[in-house]
Amino acid sequence: MTGSLRLLFVDDDPDIRTIVTLSLTLDPAIAMVAVGSPEEALAAAEAGSAFDAALLDVAMPRMDGPALLAALRRIAPGLPVIFMTAHSREHELAALRAAGAVGVIVKPFEPLTLAAQVRALLS
To answer: 56 is in which domain, residue-wise?
Structure first.
């Protein structure tokens, strides 16, 4: 995916939200909406915010990433989703892809190449 990209990012950790936002906005064509909970993400999607893709943390309280993906799919059926997780076993990554993700980024990630990694997964 080239050109401008409007991205919804969801992570309950404020430090990770800051690092990811700074990393992704190194690409001037990426516009970010970063929220701290699945509920905020669903509210943004239901309010009619048009996103080109979503980047979702897997481990969040109340609703995990796969459950959020299922809820988002009811609002925006074709929305491409990338998961971020600290779990890197192949069966865990395969399960996330099987849940409908276009890709998975394993934490810790390289901040300087994160935007390129997101774009590569979306292309």
So the answer is: 5-122
Nearest 5 degrees, angle CA 7-CA 100-CA 74? 70
- 49-77 pLDDT per residue, tens: 789 999 999 999 999 999 999 999 999 99
C-beta of residue 116 within 8 angstroms of C-beta of residue 24: no
Task: Kindly report the length of the chain.
Answer: 123
Cis preceding linkage at 66, omega within 30: no
What's the CA angle centered on 27, arms 24 and 30, to 5 degrees?
A: 70
Q: Identify the CATH number of the domain in which residue 47 sits.
A: 3.40.50.2300
Q: In 10 A of CB 23, how many CB atoms?
A: 20
